[in-house]
Design brief:
Two copies of one chain form a homodimer. The first copy, chain A, is α/β, with parallel strands linked by helices. In chain A, about 40% of the residues lie in helices and about 20% in strands. Chain A has two domains: about 1-220, Spore Coat Polysaccharide Biosynthesis Protein SpsA, Chain A, CATH 3.90.550; about 225-390, Flavodoxin domain (Rossmann fold, 3-Layer(aba) Sandwich), CATH 3.40.50.360. The radius of gyration of chain A is 24 Å and the shape is elongated. In chain A, strands 9-8-10-11-12-13 form a six-stranded parallel sheet, with helices on both faces. In chain A, strands 1-7-2-5-6 form a five-stranded mixed sheet, sandwiched between helices. Chain A is built from 13 helices and 13 strands. Chains A and B meet through helix 8, helix 13 and strand 13 of A and helix 8, helix 13 and strand 13 of B. Chains A, B: Homodimer. Chains A, B: It is an enzyme of class 2 (transferase). Chains A, B: This is D-ribitol-5-phosphate cytidylyltransferase. Chains A, B: Keywords: Cytoplasm, Nucleotidyltransferase, Transferase.
Chain lengths: ~400, ~400
């Protein structure tokens, strides 16, 4: 990644200093800012011949969304970045337009690239002096970040570090020796300061098929780090929620448990959304109608636009003497519900827990419930939605 | 990877010219050979500080087996390689010994490394002049391949290519400029020819956490490329087997269908083993006893030593009027069977197909069966064994 342009000078809005996990940055870079708007150019004109795949790698899908959309989103979510320009080959313009529209990339525009990477970057930079750019009420940026479209894991920390280092150090001889091509060009031909910064390992470039596997696994791992558990208010559901929290926390997950009466579970969804959690576990034998309402609220929020949501419905099977067990939904009804939800990017799985008074048996059931839930959240396997799994 | 030593000269036993998929090599390297024994030294003394994990990367587990064992096996399976020496740090000797024993690495010995990579390689090479080495009736090798322990995806083709190229080209100035450290040392201090060969992308080094994800996905992909389907002899089972084959083949899988009477299915396992297939689908409502017998035969073969076997039991649910459906095993019996099989590295899943005369409904069921089966074979998810999935 290279940074071309102006340097940070005065304090930034603290809201922009939060990193991807929502924690305040504490490494000293947060108190800096840029003197003007920041924009990004993503050269994405490659044809992917090294992948051994027919689709260029920037358009390969991870969890059913093209790689380029992940890179765009990584920049769009940063408040102080005003515009993203994606440079694509002529034959991919329509595809790129559909991606921008489908995933609601509001800060993003596209332009057509040239025969070389540098020509493409030039075309990307040219957008900023275009009349159309002004028409969108965007200001000519003071800082432009040039970033490979196939490095999706960029975060705010590294961008701030780059800007800060450029401010503190200027250029050095070291960069001249070990810099990338782009850095050379900037230093040779532009009246601008530039510096090479070492990125984190996660900033690696998706080049081969194994990199796509790695990228998808990293995304899945990130998505499976936190979960909201919404329980019914009866004793068994509350107990199960409590135990599940304890067990999932030993697996290094962030778990929040909320209890809600019948009809009120859908009211918890805005909170889940604010937590950026893509996993919900509902515990309790309340009717299918309530679960359908929860699915409707999730689908009508913007939560499932970028990532598939996992929704696990935990049913409690009590000893037969208790009339409660009659309330269990039919497996075929869960399958129908899940089939429809999958079209809305919500992966629904059922989980039936045998609730016994035998504490050893119950404990084994609970451990299984934890193991299976964790695995469903991590794998996001769309082939298994609608199944009623038994623990 | 570097090759140190002698050069190929006369024709080799044709059996050694088959690549990993069992096809005859046709790239011209197959008709060459080595004048003496070939051995391998695997420096594996790293402490994995770049991974951000407590376990050094060569001991990290992929599908529950340490990475180093995959690299060892990649060499051991090549007939013309006689010995593998793994060089480990003092504190990992016991772990390494247990790995060699557990995975039955018969060609492999270990030695303790030194403070630097080169000292470790020296220690590895020293084993060949050790009395103990002679005691094992091993001949001092003519060729020694030095290979990073954390590059598990090495195949016979590249090794033969390296040897051939060394024979044809000798050394060049280019290698001096771009070679690795080891190559420099060999060229500077040894009276030996050496050459740098470009490896395939799959030969990449496992360095960061995302590389472990990628490696596991590649292994899973390779394991899910072929399957043996064993069907009952009744009409419905035969039809399902036929349809499944057709569908899985469109997913680029190699599928073999065998039909076998009750009690005879276990006799198919030696054939499955000879095909190096790690996936078996049994179609038919025959009793659990027969399935247990199949599991016993698999467990007593050496098939599950290196990779988990996937065994999918497909049950056929016929309209209620047919007494046949009464033969279905209890879900809890499948769970018990699967729990015991998991300890033997066999992942058992149940799949219940609703067999109807309505051709549209049946087709949807069959597509689902194909989708779920493919996914189970690809994911090898141990959390879901014993579940009876419904399609």
């Amino acid at each position: 990644m290279e940074l071309i342009g102006d340097l940070p000078a005065r304090p930034l809005d603290p809201a922009a200093c939060f990193n991807q996990h929502g924690d305040p940055s504490d490494d000293g870079v947060s108190a800096r800012s840029f003197r003007g708007p920041v924009a990004v150019v993503l050269p994405a004109g490659g044809c992917g011949e090294r992948m051994g795949l027919s689709t260029p790698k920037q358009f390969c899908k991870l969890l059913d969304r093209p790689l380029i959309s992940y890179t765009i989103h990584a920049f769009e979510r940063i408040k102080w970045i005003e515009a993203v320009i994606v440079v694509v080959a002529e034959q991919h313009v329509e595809l790129m337009k559909s991606i921008i529209q489908k995933y609601n990339h509001e800060k993003t525009q596209w332009c057509v690239g040239g025969l070389t990477r540098h020509r493409s970057i030039f075309n990307g930079l040219s957008v900023f002096v275009d009349d159309k750019f002004m028409e969108c009420h965007l200001t000519k940026p003071k800082v432009v970040i040039i970033h490979d479209a196939v490095r999706p894991f960029v975060n705010e920390d590294i961008l701030l570090k780059i800007a800060t280092a450029a401010n503190d150090h200027g250029c050095t001889e070291y960069d001249f020796e070990y810099g990338t091509e782009c850095l050379h060009l900037v230093l040779s031909y532009c009246n601008t300061q530039a510096k090479l910064i070492e990125g984190p390992p996660t900033l690696w470039k998706v080049t081969y098929k194994q990199d796509l596997f790695a990228a998808e696994s990293l995304i899945k791992e990130t998505l499976s780090q936190n979960v909201c558990v919404i329980t019914d208010v009866d004793q068994e559901a509350l107990q199960l929620g409590h135990c599940l929290k304890k067990m999932l926390m030993t697996q290094h997950m962030d778990v929040e448990v909320i209890s809600a009466e019948y009809g009120k579970k859908k009211l918890c969804i805005p909170h889940v959304s604010s937590q950026e959690s893509y996993n919900i576990i509902i515990i309790g034998n309340t009717e299918l109608q309530e679960k359908q309402e929860v699915i409707d609220v999730i689908a009508n929020s913007s939560m499932t636009l970028l990532y598939p949501m996992v929704l696990i419905l935990v049913y409690i099977s009590l000893p037969e003497s208790t009339p409660f067990s009659k309330k269990l939904d039919e497996p075929s009804a869960i399958r129908r519900l899940a089939k429809e939800a999958k079209h809305r990017n919500i992966l629904v799985y059922g989980l039936l827990v045998n609730y016994t008074k035998d504490s050893e048996e119950l404990n084994e059931s609970l451990e299984n419930m934890c193991f299976i839930s964790k695995s469903l959240m991590k794998d996001r396997n769309s082939a298994l939605t609608g199944q009623l799994l038994v623990v």
